[in-house]
Amino acid sequence: MTEQEKLDILKNILLRDEREYAEEISRKIKVLEETINKQNQLSLKVDPIIDQKLEEFVKEMPKTLGPTITEALKAEIENSKDAVVEALFPIIGKMIKRYVQHEMQILSEKINSQVSNTFSFKSLRRKAKAKKTGVSEGELIIQEQIKPVVEQLMVINKGSGIIISEYTRTKNIDEDMVAGMLTAIKSFAEDAFEKEDIELQYIEYESYHVHLQNFSSYYIAVVISGSYNVIFKGELEDKLLNFAQNVINKEDLNDTSKLNEKLKLYFENENI
Amino acid sequence: MKISKKVVLIGHFGVGKSSLIRRFVENTFSDDYKVTIGVHIFKKSVAIPEEGKDVSLVIWDLEGNDDIRDTRTSYLLGTSAYIYVFDVTRPATYNTIGSDIEYLKQHSDKTPIRIVGNKEDLLTKEQIKDLNGEIEPLIDFFTSAKTGNKVDELFSKLAMELI
């Protein structure tokens, strides 16, 4: 055995652990290289981490960025109102146009079906009414489609604005507040004209019409939805006058529950 | 049976009529002064346990006037009770109190009137005592819309009297 061979054997014995360690590292690097260089394998390792981080980000985003984004949007809209209107106008305009077209189509179909039914009793009655009132038959047909509906009726003390009695189909307003408001508006308008015997008779509020009929110590406010027209006004006035003359008496004005009952009986099945 | 009563708050500009009502109705107070134009109407139901009844107070907050005679008389019609409010720190708001109360009585002799000195939190107890002796007729309540002192008591007692 030569000196060199003896040295190699000795090296082999002394450096075996290090060599094995180096081989292990080399193998691991190879696996790592394969993982990094092959997309599918990298994806398997990295995707769950990204998904988890994304999930956390989505959860946290409203808390951390929400107020900043809201403020920024508010400021942007405030600073460029014209641009916002400019951008939204065509969209909203189209929506409204489509809605109106749809409603007009429905109305038109209804009118056509009524006109085609020319010889019905209802049609003949309408013709007679048109002749009598001077309102065209077409207008009468349209009125039939958007019939006025009495939504609420309030008997209100003329001075105090306190409700004496009320009848409502849908409870969606605070009648005490409305009665007070109507009385204040009435007082203001009547004072403003500085003429005696002038009384406010009508107020329009969004899609509601408020008909006011005055009596000696109280007035009746009628909230109407739908079409409020001369014919309906006349009929409503007659009905209210009849109610005031023939149904209400002095005692009723001091007995809310009794008057409530009378109002309900008189107007529940109203078909003015 | 539902009981509703109209209560009118009247007095000079900036005495705290609206603040008193807001304290009573909403239990809120703001230092920002917003002048009332025309009339503002509020409502609050007050329970009277002794009678087992609820009284609905429809409260009319009238705009302040330097001269009470400038108030639209139509706003005063059918009033169940008046609350005359003055500012304890501004003599101009209570110098005419005697004639103002007379004017209200001329309108409706039997309608109760409560006289209220508001902003009592801005004076000491001694100053309040001196003021009470100085003003004729007698003050019914010294209130503070800011702290809420005596506000509920004022309206609750009034509601009880109105039944």
CATH class of chain B: Alpha Beta
Widest β-sheet, arrangement of strands of chain B: 2-3-1-4-5-6
Would you tell me which CATH topology of the largest domain in chain A applies? Beta-Lactamase
Global geometry of chain B: globular
Tell me the overall shape of chain A: elongated
Helicity level of chain B, as a percent range? 25-40%
Task: Tell me the number of strands of chain B.
Answer: 6
Alpha carbon gap, first and last residue of chain B: 12 Å
Question: Could you say how many structural domains of chain A there are in total?
Answer: 3
Helix content of chain A: 55-70%
Give me the CATH superfamily of chain B: P-loop containing nucleotide triphosphate hydrolases
Strand content of chain A: 5-15%
- Give the low-pLDDT segments of chain B: none
- Largest sheet report of chain A: 5 strands, antiparallel
Number of strands of chain A: 5
At the first level of CATH, what is the class of the largest domain in chain A? Answer: Alpha Beta
Task: Give a quick set of tags describing it.
heterodimer; A: 272 residues; alpha+beta; 3 domains; five-stranded antiparallel sheet; 10 helices; 5 strands; B: 163 residues; 4 helices; globular
Describe the structure.
The complex is a heterodimer of chains A (272) and B (163). Chain A is built from ten helices and five strands, in the order H-H-H-H-H-H-H-E-E-H-E-E-E-H-H. With 272 residues, chain A is of the alpha+beta class. Chain A folds into three domains: 3-58, no CATH class; 84-143; 149-267, Beta-Lactamase. A five-stranded antiparallel sheet of chain A has the order 2-1-5-4-3. Chain A is elongated. Chain A starts with a helix and ends in a 5-residue tail after the last helix. The mean pLDDT of chain A is 82. Chain B is an alpha/beta fold and 163 residues long. Chain B has one domain (3-162): P-loop containing nucleotide triphosphate hydrolases (Rossmann fold). Helix content of chain B is 26%, strand content 27%. Chain B has four helices and six strands, in the order βαβββαβαβα. Chain B has helices spanning 17-26, 97-107, 125-134, 151-162; strands spanning 3-11, 39-48, 53-62, 81-87, 113-118, 141-142. The relative contact order of chain B is 0.22. The chains are: A alpha+beta (272), B alpha/beta (163). Chain A binds chain B through residues 157-163, 174, 176-177, 179-181, 184, 187-188, 190-191, 256-257, and chain B through 1-2, 4-6, 38-39, 41, 43, 56, 58, 60, 72, 74-75, 77-80.
